[in-house]
């Protein structure tokens, strides 16, 4: 099981891990629908959406198509992306995420390191709350693609936080060329690639760099 903050993060950050493990579940926390789309947000405009378009339904279709190429299955939780309203409380996310994990009994759970973006940090915090409940499960973290390259992403700080909590992050895997399957899967997120490619935005080339993962030893 891979936990994804948004509809694309799991594929961008560890799509080749998913390709190597057919049948995996991808649980996206912030994939809920807002009450309406009267005025597109700045990001949705950059992604090519117009007033009234059902953005989340389109993005879910992109996610379903992308995961199908990796032989993975989506699980969409009801919490709103930060652009659509106030962040949910951590106490609201944790029980829903816990119920989802319990329903699928994964042997391995891969969670975002929680870099830069508020939703990503909140997703990481929710996962950290669940770790003590399944000590026999293998837990790993992945560096959030795109954000891991930001100078202010605080990647080193996030790893230090884990060590301070008595968790040893051990790097796994190594450099490998991105697979054709992952490239095809990333291409399914057409709206997001359009927004990422706008002037002043970081693009998506980092999604095709080697994936960074750590096994969490206690």
Task: List the topology elements.
Blueprint: E1 2-4, H1 9-20, E2 25-28, H2 42-46, H3 55-69, E3 73-76, H4 90-104, E4 108-112, H5 118-130, E5 138-142, H6 155-164, E6 168-172, H7 180-187, H8 190-196, E7 213-217
Parallel strand pairs: 1-2, 2-3, 4-5
Antiparallel strand pairs: 5-7, 6-7
Structure in words:
Helix content is about 40%, strand content about 15%. It is an alpha/beta fold. It has a single domain, classed as LmbE-like (Rossmann fold, 3-Layer(aba) Sandwich), CATH 3.40.50.10320. The strands form two sheets. Strands 4-5-7-6 form a four-stranded mixed beta sheet. A three-stranded parallel beta sheet has the order 1-2-3. Strand 4 (about 110), helix 5 (about 120-130) and strand 5 (about 140) form a beta-alpha-beta unit. The mean pLDDT is about 95.
Q: Regarding CATH, which class?
A: Alpha Beta
Tally of helical segments: 8
The strand count comes to: 7
Number of domains: 1
**Any idea what the radius of gyration is?**
16 Å
For this structure, the CATH topology is Rossmann fold
* Largest sheet composition: 4 strands, mixed
Mean pLDDT: 93
- CATH architecture title: 3-Layer(aba) Sandwich
What separation lies between the terminal Cα atoms? 20 Å
Task: Briefly note the structural class of the backbone.
Answer: alpha/beta
Tertiary shape:
globular
- Residues in β-strands, percent: 5-15%
Oligomer: single chain
CATH homologous superfamily placement: LmbE-like
The strands making up the biggest β-sheet line up spatially as 4-5-7-6
Question: Uncertain runs with pLDDT below 50, 5 residues or more?
Answer: none
Helical percentage = 25-40%
Order of helices and strands: EHEHHEHEHEHEHHE
């Amino acid at each position: 099981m891979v936990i994804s903050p948004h509809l694309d993060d799991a594929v961008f950050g560890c799509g080749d891990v998913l390709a190597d493990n057919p049948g995996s579940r991808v649980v996206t926390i912030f994939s809920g629908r807002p009450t309406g789309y009267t005025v597109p947000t700045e990001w949705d405009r950059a992604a090519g959406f117009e007033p009234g378009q059902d953005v989340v339904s389109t993005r879910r279709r992109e996610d379903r198509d992308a995961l199908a190429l990796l032989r993975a299955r989506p699980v969409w939780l009801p919490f709103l992306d930060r652009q659509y309203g106030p962040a949910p409380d951590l106490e609201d996310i944790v029980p829903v995420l816990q119920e989802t994990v319990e329903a699928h009994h994964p042997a391995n759970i891969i969670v975002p390191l929680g870099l830069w973006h508020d939703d990503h940090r909140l997703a990481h915090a929710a996962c950290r709350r669940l770790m003590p409940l399944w000590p026999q499960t293998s837990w790993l973290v992945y560096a959030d693609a795109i954000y891991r390259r930001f100078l202010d992403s605080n990647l080193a700080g996030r790893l230090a936080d884990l060590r301070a909590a008595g968790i040893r992050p051990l790097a796994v895997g190594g450099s490998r060329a991105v697979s054709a399957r992952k490239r095809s899967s990333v291409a399914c997120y057409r709206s997001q690639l359009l927004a990422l490619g706008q002037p002043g935005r970081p693009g998506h080339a980092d999604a095709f760099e080697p994936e960074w993962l750590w096994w969490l030893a206690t």
